[in-house]
Write a structure and sequence with these properties.
Number of strands: 24
Mean pLDDT: 91
Low-confidence stretches: none
Helix content: 25-40%
CATH architecture of the largest domain: Orthogonal Bundle
Shape: globular
Strand order of the largest sheet: 2-3-4-1-7-8-9
Distance between the termini: 80 Å
CATH superfamily of the largest domain: Topoisomerase I, domain 2
Number of helices: 21
Strand content: 15-25%
CATH topology of the largest domain: Topoisomerase I, domain 2
Length: about 700
């Protein structure tokens, strides 16, 4: 009997169906010589600091750095039952072998090994390594199971990454939280990401716009522009000179150009385009793609490759032909497809690019959510674009001389729409608009010839201002994360940038959840706490160089070229160094993250500011006893919440009009003016000035 362990229940069910394990039990399937179960994601993780010593439940400077000599593990809360099911299955006497069918990659390897080791399993195990949940892919994978021990170095790489993040994250978070009296989450990936957001926001806020002028010449049906003029008088001088002159075409340059088809999607590219077109967050796109994968309609989404392998050529060509029949925007269109454009064995590591599957051809869009439909349509359109022919056009640049000044006009004539035809058809089928699209002033120019002379139809000046950098969206932030620190990462490193295709969405959500970043529409804006956190941390923790160095060494571990112990020794030394360096801070700096109190009005007794508390509105002068309680009986009896707006109006005017108050006598509602009737006693009183039913 073989025990197969998948990463998620839906994947386990799909594998069980292919293997013939059809008898459903509690937490697993059984049949045809197989037991098929699952981990429910990260079932086991590194234990928190308190697992090593109860004193670590409180955060004290004298207790850090915390460096475990023997690592402890914990079962994820709420998943204990599934772990015990897996442990029991591993130790069944009729189980001779275990198959690791968790997601094919570094994290999938870690998920399985943690469970295998914490269950104290000694049985041999093999590795299922597939990129698609299609029946044919699963069957082929099981016919070519790998020796599980062949992935030991990949596991060591994953384990070192987890331990390193624990050591730096736990110690740096505790250190700076203790120093600044606020929980400050510090992470190897999320902190440099926050730094990029802060730097961009500062560049925007400190930007000083500058005015410039362009002189537009209209002659012979052509609009040509001067060079930028920062001096308005110079622009006026050009205008005056041209009003009395003819325009002469002094140069005409025609050049045929082509734009190659786009590459297929890896996860980050898919997340970026879904954000541009649909406004999906990176996490939403990943969730939709994962759901499609588990429904066997999409290949493995957590990939960093944009190519397929040569052995997929025939199946991909069939997929291309079949998919045109189920995409509404492709009806009546026959693309000139060439699958060799997307084949590159050297650029496929763990997984190939994201593709729709043959199962999608069978089932189509039936039963999918709107988000899932949009994502799989986007992936399908990208496949058809990627295998299509280049877009070809003729670029024309015409230079005119008028009054001794030079003007340039640019035009474009499409020669072959190529892949852009499919892209245009797809986008026209959407209600959404690509917010990154910029309006081009290039259009088709009339026939021109060098030496041709034109009368000036109009000459006008248009004022412009230089523009600040744009705020990050999830699209542009994902791109920045993907490319961060690349110059410091060797070419052969498997992972580059901040985070991985699988983790970047989670990093963005963590920053927002911790209050360091907020969404404003599609923009990502750092908060005051975000600014302050970046300002107090050492450069080591806010620069992407640390991640670049780690990923290079982790790749070396995965390849067997570096010893895990050497890597971990350096991480421990780093944790010790950070704690020693930041042993104390000035008293004023310790208040940097203190919550900012916003006054809602002035105290009627002493004139000091009044603030909102959790349960009341209180005077900021400790010697003054003025306080209005939110649960005051006056408002509770009238079934009206004592809101901040009501409190502010009472403090400003001594009265406030309130609609829909409840009358205990009549049982009806009424409108009335409530007065602040403060007599200086322990409690503040209120009364209704007048009412009308």
């Amino acid at each position: 009997m073989k025990l197969v362990i998948a990463e998620k229940p839906s994947v386990g069910a799909a594998i069980a169906a292919v293997l013939g394990a059809r008898e459903k039990k509690n937490g697993y399937y059984e049949g045809a010589g197989y037991l098929v179960s699952w981990c429910i994601g990260h079932l086991i993780s590194l234990a928190d600091a308190a697992a090593y010593n109860e004193k670590y439940r409180k955060w004290n400077y004298n207790d850090i750095p915390i460096i475990p000599q023997e690592w402890h593990f914990t079962i994820a809360s709420g998943k204990e039952a599934q772990f015990h099911i897996l442990k029991g299955l591993m130790h069944r006497t009729d189980v001779s072998e275990v198959v690791n069918a968790c997601d094919s990659g570094r994290e999938g390897e870690l998920i399985f090994r943690f469970v295998y080791e914490q269950a104290h399993c000694q049985k041999p195990f093999s590795r299922l390594w597939i990129s698609s949940m299609e029946e044919s892919a699963i069957r082929e994978g099981f016919s070519n199971l790998k020796d599980g021990r062949g992935y030991d170095t990949l596991y060591q790489s994953a384990l070192c990454r987890a331990k390193a993040d624990w050591l730096i994250g736990i110690n740096a978070t505790r250190l700076f939280s203790i120093l600044y009296h606020k929980t400050l989450n510090v992470g190897r990936v999320q902190t440099p990401t926050l730094s990029m957001l802060v730097n961009r926001d500062y560049a925007i806020s400190s930007f000083k716009k500058e005015k410039y002028h362009l002189v537009r010449l209209n002659a012979g049906g052509v609009a040509a522009l001067s060079e930028k003029q920062t001096d308005e008088a110079a622009a006026r001088q050009i205008q005056a000179a041209c009003e009395k002159s003819q325009a002469v075409c002094t140069s005409l340059k025609k050049e045929k150009k082509s734009v190659s088809p786009p590459k297929l999607f890896d996860l980050t590219a898919l997340q970026r385009e879904a954000n541009r077109l649909f406004g999906f967050t990176a996490k939403q796109t990943l969730d939709y793609a994962q759901a499609l994968y588990e429904k066997r309609l999409l290949t493995y989404p957590r990939t960093d490759s944009k190519y397929i392998t040569s052995d997929m050529e025939n199946s991909t060509e069939k997929l291309i032909n079949d998919i045109c029949g189920i995409l509404p925007f492709m009806q009546g269109v026959t693309p000139q497809a060439d699958a060799t454009r997307i084949i590159d064995n050297s650029k496929v590591t763990d997984h190939h690019a994201i593709l729709p599957t043959a199962e999608f051809i069978k089932k189509g869009f039936a039963g999918l959510t709107e988000g899932e439909k949009k994502v799989i349509s986007l992936v399908s359109a990208k496949l058809l674009c990627a295998v299509s022919i280049p877009y070809e056009y003729e670029a024309v640049t015409a230079v005119f001389d008028c009054g001794g000044y030079s003007f340039t006009a640019k035009g474009k004539t499409t020669l072959c729409e190529g892949w852009q035809e499919i892209d245009r058809l797809f986008r026209s089928s959407l209600k959404a608009k690509d917010e990154s699209e910029e309006t081009s002033e290039e259009c088709e120019l009339p026939e021109l010839a060098e030496g041709q002379t034109f009368n000036v139809a109009a000459i006008e000046i248009t004022d412009y201002y230089t523009q600040p950098p744009k705020a990050f969206t999830e699209d542009t932030l994902l791109s920045a994360m993907e490319n961060a620190g690349k110059e410091d990462t060797p070419e052969d490193a498997e992972r580059k940038g901040l985070g991985t295709t699988a983790t970047r969405a989670g990093i963005i959500e963590k920053l927002i959840g911790a209050g360091f970043v907020e969404r404003k529409g599609r923009k990502l804006i750092p908060t005051k706490d975000g600014y302050n956190l970046v300002s107090v941390l050492p450069d080591t923790l806010v620069s992407p160089q640390l991640t670049a160095e780690w990923e290079t060494r982790l790749t070396g571990i995965a390849k067997g070229a570096e010893e895990p112990a050497d890597f971990m020794r350096g991480i421990e030394e780093m944790a010790v160094g950070i704690v020693k360096t930041y042993s104390h801070i000035p008293e004023d700096s310790a208040k940097l993250f203190a919550p900012q109190r916003e006054a809602i009005g002035t105290c009627p007794r002493c004139g000091a500011a009044v603030y909102e508390g959790k349960k009341n509105y209180y005077c900021g002068n400790r010697a003054c006893s003025f306080v209005m309680w939110k649960n005051d009986r006056f408002f509770e009896q009238r079934k009206k919440p004592f809101t901040k707006a009501i409190a502010a109006a009472l403090l400003k005017d001594g009265k406030v009009k309130i609609k829909g108050m409840h009358s205990a006598k009549t049982g009806k509602t009424f409108d009335g003016v409530v007065l602040l009737a403060d007599t200086g006693g322990k409690y503040v009183n209120f009364r209704v000035e007048q009412t009308r039913t």
